[in-house]
Design a protein that fits this description.
With about 290 residues, the protein is of the alpha/beta class. It contains 9 helices and 10 strands. It starts with a helix and ends in a 14-residue tail after the last helix.
Amino acid sequence: MRSSLKTLDAELKIEIGPENVKNQDEVEFAVVWNHPEGLLLNYPNLKAILSCGHGADSLLSDKKLPEGVPIVCLRSEIVAEWMSEYLLAVVLLKRRKLMEHATNQGIIEWGIDIRVSGNQVSVLGLGFLGQAAAKVFLQMGFNVGGWSRTQKRVKGVKCYTGIEGLNEMLIKTDYLINLLPLTIQTHDLLNTETLSQLKRGAYLINVGRGETLVEEDLIPLLDDGHLSGACLDVFRTEPLAEGHPFWKHKKILITPHNSSSTPPYTVAPQILENYRRAISGHQLFNLVDLEHGY
């Protein structure tokens, strides 16, 4: 990140890590991810804090944040593109049974068309990433629904909100994609009760936050066939423990929290812009709503 920022402004003073901060009073802008609790109280002249990711839950888990200091997060078109690419790949792997071909090559029937029925993709979370993914699936001819805390309007997408709206969406769903931020309301949202509302044979993809899914509720739903499978990229504890039952379950595809990433060069311009706005007292981009947690 340092080199990407320096390429844009060679005069920037950048110190990496609290151990390298020479004068705490001079720190005006902090870029953080999984920082120690209370660390940011050490900088009395802090004008803004940037969560180095698309979510702010890691930062907001710090219960000792400096009062009155605005928090911003990142919005990257590349991250959205890579996330949508991952999600489309997973859905098509399932829809065309390509994983079954890969693991059962000895029993493939030649010339037989194999395509799982069901064309409804539902996205939990219609923020920046969710809307980008929804548009990709629309372009591929899927029926797309989306659920969010507040009512959204996305062209071509059937939008839902509230518990009744969630249940109405789930019963129609063939592929459920979770892109929700982690908040008090979304913690444990995907549990036996909600996942049982899905159409029988639905497929779950979790790329949001591990804490959204009650992990012990998933395997029974897979074993009894209510869910046909799951692709999980995020977990409550990462890396996923070696002995975790998810590793051995034949209906679970695990990826190591790499559904998307944030190349420094793609976000350095907005980090620099928010830094300049913060020190000059102008309105910041991508402000986090502290009440709602994103």
